[in-house]
Amino acid sequence: MLKRYLIILCVIALSILWLLLLAQPAFAKEDTRFLGYGNAHLENQDFSHQDLSGGIFVSAEMRGTNFSGADLTNAILTKGNLLGANLSGANLTGALVDRVTLYKANLTNAIFTDATLSNSIFADSDITGADFTNAILDRYAVSQLCQRAAGVNPVTGVSTRDSLGCR
């Protein structure tokens, strides 16, 4: 029981540290673009091949949404519903994907390097060629993903099995 609390505490601490490391003074950035989609209904929208880096998708409903080839670097997708969404070839490096439903999602060749994927559901998702290098995943999720891990990411050259640490 103590181990479980320590893991939860570590995930919270890493999330806070991640947010603090991304903080920048307002005058340091010229880009005035703000991608805030909190509690938004984005079902079946097409965000393919768009720059959504740093976007905030908190508690957003994104069933069937197309994020193929999108740049979601350092995006925040907490408590989101991506049931049946297409994230093939999407770059989610450093993203916070906490408590997200990715049931039946297409994650083919997606990049999750250094992402936090805690408490997320990957049931029946296609992870062929996905790269999870240094991602934070629940032990149960890793065991489930390793059962169907296959392929090599065409961008990073890392096999899905290796990136998950499958045996």
Description:
This protein is mostly helical. Strands 1-2 form a two-stranded parallel ribbon. 43% of the residues are buried. It is 20% helix and 2% strand. It contains 3 helices and 2 strands. The longest helix has 21 residues, at 2-22. The model is unreliable at 26-33 (pLDDT under 50). The protein has helices at residues 2-22, 139-146, 160-164, and strands at 116-117, 136-137. The two termini are 26 Å apart.
* Percent of sequence in beta strands: under 5%
The secondary structure category is mainly alpha
The helix count comes to 3
Average of the residue pLDDT scores: 88
Q: Which term fits the overall shape?
A: globular
Order of neighbouring strands in the sheet with most strands: 1-2
**Which radius of gyration do the C-alpha atoms yield?**
15 Å
Q: Using DSSP, what is the number of strands? A: 2
Helix content: 10-25%
Q: Main beta sheet: strand number and arrangement?
A: 2 strands, parallel
Low-confidence stretches: 26-33
Distance between the termini: 26 Å
Following the backbone from N to C, one meets helices and strands in this order, namely HEEHH
Give the SSE map:
Blueprint: H1 2-22, E1 116-117, E2 136-137, H2 139-146, H3 160-164
Parallel strand pairs: 1-2
In a few lines, what is going on in this structure?
With 167 residues, the protein is mostly helical. Helices cover 20% and strands 2% of the residues.
Output the keywords.
167 residues, mainly alpha, two-stranded parallel ribbon, 2 strands
